[in-house]
Amino acid sequence: MSVSSFYPPQRTLMGPGPSDVHPKVLQALSRPVIGHLDPLFIGMMDEVRELLQYAFQTKNECTMAVSAPGSAGMEACFVNLVEPGDKVVVCINGVFGSRMAENVVRSGGQLVRVEDDWGQPVSPDKLEDALKAHPDAKMVAFVHAETSTGVLSDAQTLCSLAKQYDCLSIVDAVTSLGGVPLYVDDWGIDAIYSGTQKCLSCVPGISPVSFSDAAVAKIKSRKTPVQSWFLDQTLVMNYWSGNQKRSYHHTAPVNALYALHEALVQLQDEGLENAWQRHARQHQALRSGLEKLGISFIVDEGCRLPQLNAVAIPEGVDDAAVRSRLLNQYNLEIGAGLGAFAGKVWRIGLMGYAARDENTALCLRALEETLQ
Amino acid sequence: MSVSSFYPPQRTLMGPGPSDVHPKVLQALSRPVIGHLDPLFIGMMDEVRELLQYAFQTKNECTMAVSAPGSAGMEACFVNLVEPGDKVVVCINGVFGSRMAENVVRSGGQLVRVEDDWGQPVSPDKLEDALKAHPDAKMVAFVHAETSTGVLSDAQTLCSLAKQYDCLSIVDAVTSLGGVPLYVDDWGIDAIYSGTQKCLSCVPGISPVSFSDAAVAKIKSRKTPVQSWFLDQTLVMNYWSGNQKRSYHHTAPVNALYALHEALVQLQDEGLENAWQRHARQHQALRSGLEKLGISFIVDEGCRLPQLNAVAIPEGVDDAAVRSRLLNQYNLEIGAGLGAFAGKVWRIGLMGYAARDENTALCLRALEETLQ
């Protein structure tokens, strides 16, 4: 065996993530490693927290980056908040809602499922019915932007229902953060997790999370230890918190945090509202181009995600052949359908640094040529 | 608030990790992102698995990289192998043995502790006594190279005892992999985890793991689901395994895996035995220099780790002041003592790319000037 160095091609990433990474983020990624307890690194972590507070629009002290991908951020929320026997209402309208449900079960919680069809947003009415039927429910969980279907749900209404029925809310913002309006404090979100590889224009591998004071109080009053040592927020907080002596928990992924820091600096410099508008603008351009090609959206206009466009694969078109030609001829990646949508749907991402005129133009032209 | 880009200084990292990273690894880290299901990426993952098999000296099919730091690799071994009620003997001679014990408890296992003093290797006699006293034990866990104390334990003897008493073995090789001889198959290790930021000369954030056929059989015959969805090897294997259609589990940390691939290519090109010898050689040079400075090792010669030199802080020397001067004046990081050794011990790492003549020379000269 003799393996050589790996040189990836330059792709244009317009799938469901990872999406195109800002060149400055790639530069930051390869800066020299310093120790995870180096005072300069600790200072940088404080800035990451501040920048995440801005991105999440929150003042939550307990805001940080989990040292693993979004799936681990999801698990961090559930294993910390759910104690054995806790009843949790999970709204499911795609793959990631189902994954939340799986997390409730594995955390020992009692699962109440509220289901909507794939391609539909979470129904506040159904959630309210479930909350009426289960007055002992302690938490409500849902996905803000379903990556499997391209649907945006009304997080503000769902969280206010949760509050009304004395429940904490757990929100999946993996695909929404940085791409569409999201106000953690104003909407009363109690626990939220995201990923770096979507609208933050960063490499995959890290999961920003934030917990409200009420969520932290629930974690601190647990009667049983958190089942995961790695994700135990009562331990991790001692490393991330600026209020006390840092204590070693695990070795932070130093360079990945350089990258996240730079991605968040770029977001700050652009401004959140401008980033949201850029995603909306590119979505409109893509949409009008796709419609000219006779390609239609599978999601109603009112709840379409600008950053993840789920469209029907035209009748008679070979899904795999088209995606493969886009990849091999144009170095362009678009996403396949997931689960029930496999073979029926393409998911075209316009996330973060991928939401630019040149990407939209390339995608439309390459699709046109390929479908001819 | 306005945060600027972060530019870390160029440090020489001679603590307990992260250690110096090979420049080619940093270059690989910032190559263009491609999709985690891109055929070219899948091909690279296959190479990572092959290269890890070489590094671990194993033919285990179930060899892969956990998408999170070594602590998560540890947790992956315990949550997958330990079912509620399983009795696990954990040998503890430092911080990381204690962390293993914590993992057994959180996985619902019955913990049997075998303790040795900090600075001592794990005693095979004590382990055998415990195995005789607990004939129903199902697993034995220990740390090959204790990062908190700089001690090497005799993994071959400990694993053969485990086998003799019908137990699976779980081995922490975070600091040993690439730095000292380690033969997973020959020694009969059933589950092993490591980290990228020690002797592999790679950035922190990923954890190589490997499971024997017997370990995989135990995982597949579980009566209860693995409590962690993120670390559930029965799911992760479907993404890493080359024998079937890849199924999406979580988004792989693409760039971190580029870096690991390159680090393993470097190890392959140097040759494992040569890497072990390089660590041994630098250790001898550091040792003779330290002895001239009147600094003595706290670990007996027969079980010292070449890659992590735990030495007594000389009488009357201000621990924090010395480390701070080394860091600020020489850009040199050495490690503080952990737990019971805080304030009493320095840990000088010679790990991976840090095990070079120039590092040893800098460290000895800077210590000499600082202690004058």
Automatic annotation (TrEMBL), chains A, B:
SUPFAM superfamilies named among the record's database cross-references: PLP-dependent transferases (SSF53383)
Cofactors named for this entry: pyridoxal 5'-phosphate
Superkingdom of this protein's organism: Bacteria
Molecular function per GO: alanine-glyoxylate transaminase activity; L-serine-pyruvate transaminase activity
PROSITE patterns in UniProt: AA_TRANSFER_CLASS_5
UniProt keyword annotation of Transferase present: yes
InterPro entries linked: Aminotrans_V_dom (IPR000192), Aminotrans_V_PyrdxlP_BS (IPR020578), PyrdxlP-dep_Trfase (IPR015424), PyrdxlP-dep_Trfase_major (IPR015421), PyrdxlP-dep_Trfase_small (IPR015422), SP_NH2Trfase/AEP_transaminase (IPR024169)
Keyword list, A-Z: Aminotransferase, Pyridoxal phosphate, Transferase
Residues bearing the modification N6-(pyridoxal phosphate)lysine: K198
Binding site for substrate: R347
Aminotransferase class V domain segment(s): 40-338
A biological-process GO annotation: glycine biosynthetic process, by transamination of glyoxylate
Family annotation (PANTHER family): ALANINE--GLYOXYLATE AMINOTRANSFERASE, AMINOTRANSFERASE CLASS V
The family this protein is said to belong to: Belongs to the class-V pyridoxal-phosphate-dependent aminotransferase family.
Protein name: Alanine--glyoxylate aminotransferase
